[in-house]
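Is iron/sulfur cluster placement plausible here? Inputs below.
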Amino acid sequence: MKVFLRSFGCQMNKLDTNLVANSFLQAGFEFTEEIGEADAVLINTCSVRNHAEERVLSLLGHLKHIKKTRPQIVVAVFGCMAQRLKEDLLSHEAVNIVCGPLQIPELVSLVSKAIEKNTKLTAVSNDIRHKSLPEDSDRLDDFEYSYDSAEDNLPAQAYVRVMRGCDKFCSYCVVPYVRGPEASREPAKIIAQIKKLADSGIKQVTLLGQTVNSYRYDNFTFADLLYEVSKINSIEWIKFVTCYPKNFDERIFKAMVDLPTVCRYLHIPAQSGSDKILKAMNRGYTCSQYLEIIDKAREIVPDIAVAGDFIVGFPGETDEDFQKTIELVEKAQYKNCYIFKYSPRPGTRADDKLADDVPMEVKKQRNIELLAVQEKISAELNKSFIGKTVKVLVEGASKKAHLDKADKENVSQLIGRTAGDYIVVFDGSENLAGQFVNVNITKASALTLFGQIN
Ligand code: SAH
Ligand code: SF4
Ligand code: F3S
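Reply from A.M.:
I modeled the complex. Tokens:
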């Protein structure tokens, strides 16, 4: 049996996609890149913005067409969009299986059943905000432990979930409604999993949670977890995303200084620089409280790399509010920012209560403007690396051809990242993928550092 797998969405979804892929491999399925020769098509979906859902719907449209000649193909839609739309998605002609993010351990058996009987099946949470039963968490933990999340395409790297769900209810965000309540995994289970990954050759783990710094298991905090993980031999880099700018435990910054394996990288979305908009977003902090955290981070860890997220065009955002966001970006000196145009999500408080009153043209304009401000900052920061040597974990051959590619034989253009998550491009042999190398930086753009291995 052959499976075609596509994944949309955030790191949490990538992790789930890896787990699902490994579970299908172990059940004896093979993978194909040719949709036309697949017996089953698996699509891991994201609901965070309308655009993410549109991409899935367009793939489903394509599959509907394919199914006219190959009606026996089983199409399984899983992940956040499956949980959001539930049975409604099943009425789509192309769809056989709808499976929520908390039901992925069942996916192999659902697909096998549907292939055998050519039926439609659903497995979603009917009351997703209901605290899950211990046996449900155990089942998800076991699934995660058995199939872990080592990646083929990023050798020596793995994602490890430390928390599920989210309880923050930012007014624009669908995540709490599709991923369920916040729950921290038991430290012993996380540690056992990372030890197993380390034994299999993993050198970098990225600890994942929607608000990873709020991790807490009884009295055991996220900082405690960093100290524990850093004891595991052969894990050379520990990264973590995403941080929430409230009740920030400074011990996390101290851990970065104390522990050489904890990367000095902080992804801490602000979303807006206007207190009025932050309030309407239900973020629970002001712009100056946010900046205090960044200042503290730089005081304790002077060379920390900070990244952010922003939403432009949130309901009620005036030019003045947007100006405040620009000011925040200038003050925060991010290494990079992810900027999104507000997209109303059905069922969220912002969509229920607030009109999407910023015209698309204005959203686009603000997006471009904020990106330009950030690019200037990124270019300056990147320039400061020229002449320095950085340690890089090699990901593999760069998919994009860069301008000054060498024409030497047996030499590829490689891509990797630093501990601060800077992207570095340099020439080298592809068998360096998964290794650490030192690169002398000779050139820099706003997005990329370029150099030579020394
Ligand atoms: N848990 C993470 C982010 C999860 S979603 C956090 O809180 O930081 C990733 C990013 O998508 C968010 O940081 C936000 O910037 C953006 N986002 C979420 N919902 C959105 C929406 N409705 N419209 C536009 N962007 C959105
Ligand atoms: Fe969404 Fe806010 Fe939770 Fe992040 S913290 S996942 S933005 S609700
Ligand atoms: Fe991630 Fe998208 Fe779900 S951002 S948690 S895959 S809605």
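Short version: The chain has three domains: 2-123, 134-383, 389-453.
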